[in-house]
Amino acid sequence: MDKLQAMHVFTRVVDFNSFSAAADGLRMTRSSVTTIIQNLESYLKVRLLNRTTRRISLTPDGAAYYERCTRILADIEESESSFSTVTSPRGKLKVDLPGSIGRLVIVPALAEFHARYPDIDLMLCVSDKPVDLVQEGVDCALRMGYLPDSTLIARRIGTSEFVTAASPEYLQHFGTPHTLADLDTHVAVNYFSSRNGRIVEMDFVIEDKSVEVKMRSKLSTHDGDTYLQCGLQGLGLIQIPYFLALPNIKSGELVEVLPDSRPTPFPIWAVYPQSRHLSAPVRAFVEWVAERFNACHLLRRGDGLGHLQPVRSDEAQSAESPDTYSEGIRQSRRGRESAHI
């Protein structure tokens, strides 16, 4: 049995979730693919896949073996690429993105990414749920805000400014706050961490210092889109990324309040397992995203009142000398939870 071929066939069956589709992609017959998988399971003495007439799924052993296979095949491809005359990075790259950043900032620019790196096969996972990068076989992920201590490598690639906002209906009923003291008569929609359930208090920058304000609230959520909808319905003040609020502010559905005391901007990080920091596709994606964030008007205000400054190339350390999670904790505001908005 050709073990390398068997690993390749197995990963393609899992990726396509189909023997037939994998066979077509590999230009093999379905019977050949089936035989290779059967021989592989016989050789390993474990069942890798659960098969029914309608679908296939990984067994626990299959999931563990799939993760190892993808790493081995990626390492082989990376080794071959390092001796190739082809300068463009190539290979499969699995990336996890927060929902709104993925939909509003990254996905609209994917044509540019593929034009620059046509040999990278990009697999995007767009979700607000935290994932275990190693367990899920994710090569790189984008995260906002506070980073919990971890063995993962993190590189700061941008910053997102936040705004405090409310619907016109809410302001008509409660009035418009002009100072932090005015917030005593207002209510907020709270955002809480899906990881530990902790409420993220309202935050304002006064004379370059971050000040937390605990407000009255009878409603909280850990979902970014739900949080925005609650604000649009007049259920309370909200603090959300500028890029997420901008369309609604332009349409008049939201009104920014306390513009001279805006929330602390959140750093945006690219994080990845230590085994992937030398991967050419990962380096290419991280560099491209950093450029995208620096040029994206959705992440910064143009009125000069905000705290956000673009990340200069000399501020963003290279993947060969990356920031660690513990360094990220010191640069982020203490206690602020990671925002999957």
Top keywords for this entry?
341 residues; alpha+beta; Arc Repressor Mutant, subunit A; D-Maltodextrin-Binding Protein, domain 2; 3 domains; six-stranded mixed sheet; three-stranded antiparallel sheet; 12 helices; 38% helix
Describe the overall structure.
The chain has 341 residues and is an alpha+beta fold. It folds into 3 domains: 3-78, Arc Repressor Mutant, subunit A (Orthogonal Bundle), CATH 1.10.10; 86-156 and 270-297 and 312-331, D-Maltodextrin-Binding Protein, domain 2 (3-Layer(aba) Sandwich); 162-256, Periplasmic binding protein-like II (D-Maltodextrin-Binding Protein, domain 2), CATH 3.40.190. The chain is 38% helix and 23% strand. It is built from 12 helices and 16 strands. The strands form 5 sheets. A 6-stranded mixed β-sheet has the order 4-3-5-15-6-16. The chain has a 3-stranded antiparallel β-sheet with strand order 13-7-14. The chain has a 3-stranded mixed β-sheet with strand order 9-8-12, covered by helices on one side. The longest helix is centred in the first third of the chain and has 23 residues, at 60-82. Mean pLDDT is 81; it is low at 303-341.
Q: Would you summarize the structure shown here?
A:
The protein has helices at residues 3-16, 19-26, 30-44, 60-82, 99-106, 110-116, 133-136, 168-174, 224-232, 242-251, 280-295, 325-331, and strands at 49-51, 56-58, 91-97, 120-126, 140-144, 153-160, 162-166, 187-192, 199-200, 202-206, 209-213, 216-221, 238-241, 255-256, 266-272, 323-324. The chain has 341 residues and is an alpha+beta fold. The termini are far apart.
